[in-house]
């Protein structure tokens, strides 16, 4: 499957998710019942309920961390959220930048953009906007943002080198990013990697953690810091869909693991 086909699957899947409630999304690891419907997606997500600026209508329960907690966002900053969905992290960032800052959300799924714009209209923010675009080819000018955040999205991007090159391009000199994402220690079994539904909604789009950090460093970022990491267990009833009994035993006993991490880096 090529990159464009994978992007189409992600668009279709998250278009479905945009039209579901958070409670519906939390009943499956990918938010849609056609994937792994017996798995609790909350093993990935953290609670935003205590966050200033939190809007429950914008929270679809799709994150794997809270990047704004570590992003060092200050009043007056210009912030970009990649894969902004219904606007959850944008509205939290808006509370941090205040009236003098600006927040931009970028997403390529029409249904998500429509939901985010609707939520923003209800809130009445004039310094929050949502833009349609691909993370690998952002329709945004160079050297624009002080801070870039993203929550459980870059693992779905086929070419992560392009993604971080674009992050570098649109950041101001001295700016930084902070993203929460899913990575792997070791390699997932091939059958998991090949499954498009797992790719679009769960973990198969993730890459090895050391490779992920190397991509960041190779783009020129400095002061790369992993602020938080949490191991995520794939339930047996999900593994059974893709692996034989012997393969499952080897996978469980092995070093391979799935992690959610929150990492930052600076354009110095």
Word description of this protein:
This protein has one domain: Vaccinia Virus protein VP39 (Rossmann fold, 3-Layer(aba) Sandwich), CATH 3.40.50.150. The chain starts with a helix and ends with a strand. About 5% of the residues have low confidence. Helix 1 crosses helix 4. It is globular. Helices cover 33% and strands 22% of the residues. A 7-stranded mixed β-sheet has the order 3-2-1-4-5-7-6, sandwiched between helices. It is an alpha/beta fold and 268 residues long.
- The tally of structural domains comes to 1
Largest sheet: 7 strands, mixed
Tally the helices: what do you get?
10
How is the CATH topology named?
Rossmann fold
Strand order of the largest sheet: 3-2-1-4-5-7-6
Q: Structural class given helices, strands, pairing?
A: alpha/beta
Strand segment count: 7
* Low-pLDDT regions: 28-41
User: What is the approximate shape?
Assistant: globular
CATH class: Alpha Beta
Q: Give the proportion of residues in helices.
A: 25-40%
Task: Report strand %.
Answer: 15-25%
Mean pLDDT: 87
Write the element-wise H/E pattern from the N-terminal end onward.
Answer: HHEHEHEEHEHHHEHHE
Q: Quick one: CATH superfamily?
A: Vaccinia Virus protein VP39
Rg result: 18 Å
